[in-house]
Design a protein that fits this description.
346 residues, Spore Coat Polysaccharide Biosynthesis Protein SpsA, Chain A, 2 domains
Length: 346
């Protein structure tokens, strides 16, 4: 069986309070492997940090690198989260790779599952489980590939030849797993796409989990846990306040995804279905922010109207319906919590 080198890209901007814990989670996960010959690579991308992140990263690499786990650091001018990932993809040596945000962690058995899956099936893309845990609490939300999808032999996983099965089963727990955190890509496959994440913007992960994933010809669904995602930090980009403040950046990411429309359309029906489904969700989230989360409701109506003009000649599932529902809610001063019920979202 071929030994597979697995790379983990850690984008790090002003992350001196977290990055060491992120690296330690990888070291613990790697230590759980019996096979000493399988090398893991950690690439910390210091993205123009102005705190002690860069120096700490160098110290971590110096003190913790080994033959089993190589740790390297790239220092660059600030290019944003997407720019850090772009730089990392250019530099990694692993046959497979994932992105680990500096304030999150790899699960203790996560690397084991990656190696087992890659060795047995060699897919373009793997999807594994995620725990979302809240700071300063015992609350953990766990998401796994559903048992009914994997069948009786859950350890064997399920290999797909395209993404049609995913779109057909989107209203299962799969909808929570097709995100950046749960994805492991074949490096050669990803590089062959010649795509770059948008830089110096937030929410670039949408480009990653929509565009890159859409082109995958082989996808492996695994029940194992890969990622531990931290929630509850008010500085996170997913907080309501930051979503409103960064609405224009969200728009730039959508523009980047939309620019790929003709290319994905040529990639086949399953790729196009997945792309349109995910784009509908991302744009709907933009509309929710503009129309329901934004305190200036008139500004929200103007922003959402301009967004919908981009889709005048492009048909995206349920997008127009969602827009008119949200616009009506905006005019009636209704809140976000009522939206899911109105559109029948589970």
């Amino acid at each position: 069986m071929k030994d597979i080198c697995f790379s983990i890209i850690i984008p790090a901007y002003n992350a001196e309070n977290y990055v060491e814990d992120a690296v330690n989670s990888v070291l613990v996960s790697r230590a759980g492997l019996r096979d000493r010959d399988r090398v893991v690579e950690i690439l910390i991308v210091d993205d123009g940090s102005v705190d002690g992140t860069g120096q700490l990263a160098d110290t971590i690499a110096l003190n913790n690198s080994s033959e089993e786990c190589v740790i390297r650091v790239i220092h660059q001018e600030n290019r944003g989260h997407g720019g850090a990932i772009n730089a990392g993809v250019e530099e990694i040596n692993g046959e497979y790779f994932m992105v680990l945000d500096a304030d999150d962690a790899v699960a203790s058995d996560g690397i084991k599952y990656v190696f087992e899956t890659a060795a047995d099936s060699a897919p373009d893309l793997m999807i594994l489980g995620e725990d979302r845990w809240y700071e300063d609490s015992d609350i953990v939300e766990s998401y796994r590939v559903p048992e009914e999808i994997l069948g009786s032999d859950m350890d064997a996983g399920r290999k797909l030849t395209d993404l049609r099965f995913v779109t057909d089963n989107w209203n299962t727990e799969l909808r929570y797993l097709f995100n950046m955190h749960c994805m492991v890509f074949n490096t050669a496959f990803f590089r062959s796409l010649n795509i770059k994440l948008p830089e110096k913007v937030y929410y670039d992960d949408a480009y990653y989990f929509i565009v890159a994933a859409a082109y995958a010809k082989s996808v492996m669904l695994e029940h194992g846990l890969l990622y531990r995602y931290r929630l509850g930090n008010p500085n996170q980009s997913v907080s309501v306040e930051n979503r409103v403040k960064r609405l224009s950046q969200h728009e730039k990411v959508i523009d980047s995804i939309l620019a790929e429309y003709p290319n994905v359309q040529k990639a086949g029906d399953s790729a196009f279905l997945y792309y349109r489904l995910r784009l509908s969700g991302v744009v709907t989230d933009y509309l929710v922010t503009a129309l329901l989360r934004c305190g200036d409701r008139a500004y929200g109506r103007k922003s959402s109207k301009l967004m919908m003009k981009k889709f005048k000649n492009i048909k995206i599932p349920k997008l127009s319906r969602n827009y008119f529902v949200l616009r009506g809610m905006n005019l009636m001063h209704m809140g976000e919590k009522q939206f899911g019920r109105l559109i029948g979202r589970k």
